[in-house]
């Protein structure tokens, strides 16, 4: 049921699907069950995004608050030559030269492809942001965020709400491509299935992205209402792949290397994008690299090895924060919780990590752990991070009434883009 108040439209759709795994009853899943454990062939091929080569079709999916360069460097060191995308940068924040946004635009010298993601609602502001990226040689690839389900973003018509308005969606891509193409910077789009199943947008959005010059599309196969709940419906990735000629990256619920193979096998997609699965497990990219190469070896480090990654992560973050160890260690806290997930580490030790203020504090706590503890089998390749459904979907007032915007709607939308760099 939809409710309206003066400012916004709210859809109450707590569970888009009752089934935890919407793939559960499909013919594909029966086939999947048969294939599991068998050597069914999977076609893994390099992907080309215009001038940018992606020899191994795997993407570190952008994650706000997670995929800054220190984490990307760790993932890329383990992984193959894929794409390791920075977290989304708010176009308006970049245009305003917001220092936090500028910090998020930094790349490490070792990064093979500088992949930056822009988020914008206003085509003109997003074009200006793209121009800044081009004029200052800030990236080799620009991804556009049309997948964010966070209420703060969708209630302004942004992220996964935007493809519903085909006029703004088309114009925004057109303008960014117009700026990036002459600079040889490929533009890609990241989308969801739709707002909910009554308002699906992915096939149309994919076609528009392709027509307007995007070099690939990534589909997170959930709706906004599904948020991060249940399982993404990979059959939709197959549908999109069948509808488009540009590469399609499948996204959603790749928790281990076998999931990556299975997604490609099941959907025919050109590559996979991995988000939550690598939280606290950057070595997942080593496993995917091996799986793509047909090598059965898998990395599952013991606690001592995990702690060495934590220490290195802390050092890289300190560099990211220009030597500010306190900021680095605060940023590291959520990662430590993910790194230690499933290990037999008691509550008081975990709390002590959360109270660390310096790298020495972190080292001290590491010194109290038993480095010989093996990686806990019960968390290998299992879900982690956000897993819930949206309680409600928040949209601008009257958003669903029409597929295009009125003059008044544009005035309201573009008058107050958020100035902050995060969501
Ligand atoms: C903490 C967090 C932050 C995210 N930030 C972004 C973002 O900045 N841009 C974006 O396009 N998607 C973002 N996402 C979505 C992920 O890129 C990905 O599409 C989603 O998590 C589904 O993939 P997964 O099942 O592999 O996690 C974020 C997800 C999480 C959990």
Automatic annotation (TrEMBL):
Region (Disordered) residue spans: 1-26
Molecular function GO terms recorded: flavin adenine dinucleotide binding; RNA binding; tRNA dihydrouridine synthase activity
Cofactor or coenzyme needed: FMN
Short name of one Pfam family: Dus
Domain DUS-like FMN-binding: 60-360
InterPro entries in the cross-refs: Aldolase_TIM, DUS-like_FMN-bd, DusB-like, tRNA-dHydroUridine_Synthase_C, tRNA_hU_synthase_CS
Biased composition annotated in UniProt, kind: Basic and acidic residues: 15-24
Protein's UniProt keywords contain NADP: yes
Alphabetic keyword roster: Flavoprotein, FMN, NADP, Oxidoreductase, tRNA processing
Listed NCBIfam families: nifR3_yhdG
Protein name: tRNA dihydrouridine synthase DusB
Species of provenance: Bifidobacterium avesanii
């Amino acid at each position: 049921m939809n409710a309206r108040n003066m400012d916004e439209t709210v859809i109450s759709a707590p569970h888009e699907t009752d089934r935890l795994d919407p793939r559960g009853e499909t013919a594909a899943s029966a086939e999947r069950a048969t294939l599991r454990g068998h050597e069914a062939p999977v076609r893994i091929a390099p992907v080309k995004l215009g001038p940018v080569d992606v020899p191994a079709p795997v993407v570190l999916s952008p994650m706000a608050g997670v995929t800054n360069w220190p984490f990307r460097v760790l993932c890329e060191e383990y992984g193959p030559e894929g794409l390791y995308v920075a977290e989304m940068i708010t176009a308006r924040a970049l245009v305003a030269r917001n220092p936090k946004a500028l910090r998020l635009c930094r790349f490490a010298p070792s990064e093979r492809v500088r992949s930056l993601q822009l988020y914008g609602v206003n085509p003109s502001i997003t074009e200006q942001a793209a121009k800044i990226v081009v004029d200052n040689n800030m990236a080799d690839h620009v991804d556009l965020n049309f997948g964010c389900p966070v209420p703060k973003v969708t209630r302004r018509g942004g992220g996964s709400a935007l493809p519903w308005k085909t006029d703004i969606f088309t114009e925004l891509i057109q303008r960014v491509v117009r700026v990036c193409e002459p600079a040889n910077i490929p533009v890609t789009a990241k989308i969801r299935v739709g707002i909910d199943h009554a308002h699906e947008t992915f096939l149309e959005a994919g076609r528009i992205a392709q027509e307007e010059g995007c070099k690939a599309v990534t589909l997170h196969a959930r709706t906004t209402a599904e948020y991060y709940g249940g399982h993404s419906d990979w059959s939709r990735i197959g549908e999109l792949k069948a509808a488009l000629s540009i590469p399609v990256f499948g996204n959603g619920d790749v928790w281990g290397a076998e999931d990556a193979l299975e997604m490609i096998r099941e959907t025919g997609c050109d590559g996979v994008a991995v988000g939550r699965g690598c939280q606290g497990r950057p070595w997942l990219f080593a496993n995917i690299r091996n799986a793509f190469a047909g090598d059965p070896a898998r990395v599952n480090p013991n606690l001592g090895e995990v702690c060495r990654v934590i220490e290195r992560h802390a050092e890289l973050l300190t560099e990211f924060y220009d030597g500010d160890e306190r900021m680095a260690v605060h940023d590291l806290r959520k990662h430590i919780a993910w790194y230690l997930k499933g290990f037999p580490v008691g509550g008081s030790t975990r709390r002590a990590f959360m109270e660390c203020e310096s790298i020495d504090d972190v080292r001290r706590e590491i010194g109290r752990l038993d480095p010989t503890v093996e990686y806990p089998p019960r968390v290998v390749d299992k879900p982690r991070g956000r897993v819930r459904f949206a309680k409600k979907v928040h949209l601008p007032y009257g958003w669903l009434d029409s597929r295009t915007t009125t003059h008044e709607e544009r005035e309201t939308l573009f008058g107050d883009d958020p100035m902050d760099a995060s969501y």
